[in-house]
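$ ./design --mode recover --in tokens.txt
reading tokens...
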């Protein structure tokens, strides 16, 4: 078995390197966080177009309001305010196939279309299979934004304006969108993560790493939720709202069952009065 190596970082008594760049002499004060992040992940120097795409993606994915990731972060922070990183980590666990992380799944579909001898036929096949199986089609649909997701409209317009990019991922997404509308018999919007899948594909990010950019972006948004929780807390309100809204349906006597107010006050750990 070959000896494993790393190309990411090295240090000695007087210096530290990120890949081949000297941290002190080449990076600090000379490069932005986004540039160094890209260099570390992609192992190449970023072009200006790469940075425009990456920054647009990171800004888009950073904040989505009180979705499951933000709720998880606020509740964990309410429970353990000494553990900020644990609260952020709990929210990041919600980045997946239903929220924020769906660009990875969409990218796999775009790769199939790009690799096909007949891209239009492949797009129709994907759309038809999704409808027949009633499967969720990653990158499409939004419960709030209709008829189109304004974020996706803006992101795709920005990407298509970049003449340096090959355009094949965006074209594949457009083909799939047309096939989806045809097969479903109605217009279904491309959502933000669908646009992000095409954007990141255009600058060479493999589908297997795309969710990582969502994690990086969402971490910043979750720190913002913690900052707001410190000054204008919502965690206890979320907890108490759920405690009141979901009734007890067991066989125990309602006369003996603790009400939500009594339950909080009777907590043996004193959590009912904490935070």
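writing sequence...
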């Amino acid at each position: 078995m070959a000896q494993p190596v790393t190309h990411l970082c090295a240090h000695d008594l007087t210096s530290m390197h990120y890949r081949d760049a000297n941290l002190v002499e080449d990076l600090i004060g000379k490069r932005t966080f986004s540039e160094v992040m890209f260099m570390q992940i992609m192992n190449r120097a970023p072009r200006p177009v790469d940075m425009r795409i990456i920054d647009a993606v990171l800004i888009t994915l950073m904040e989505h309001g009180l979705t499951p990731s933000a709720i998880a972060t606020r509740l964990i922070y309410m429970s353990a305010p000494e553990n900020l990183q644990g609260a952020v980590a709990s929210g990041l666990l919600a980045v997946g196939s239903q929220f924020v992380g769906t660009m990875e799944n969409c990218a796999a579909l775009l790769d199939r279309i790009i690799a096909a001898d007949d891209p239009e036929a492949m797009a129709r096949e994907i759309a038809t299979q999704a409808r027949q199986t009633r499967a969720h089609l990653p990158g499409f649909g939004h419960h709030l934004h209709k008829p189109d997701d304004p974020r996706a409209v803006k992101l795709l317009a920005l990407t298509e304006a970049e003449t340096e990019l090959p355009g094949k991922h965006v074209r594949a997404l457009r083909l799939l969108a047309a096939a989806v509308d045809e097969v479903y018999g109605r217009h279904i919007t491309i959502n933000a993560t669908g646009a992000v899948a095409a954007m990141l594909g255009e600058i060479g990010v493999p589908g297997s790493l795309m969710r990582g950019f969502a994690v990086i972006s969402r971490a910043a948004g979750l720190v913002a939720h913690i900052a707001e929780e410190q000054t204008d807390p919502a965690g206890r309100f979320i907890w108490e709202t759920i405690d009141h809204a979901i009734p007890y349906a067991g066989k125990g006597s309602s006369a003996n069952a603790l009400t939500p107010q009594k339950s909080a006050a009777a907590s043996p750990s004193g959590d009912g009065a904490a935070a």
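exit 0
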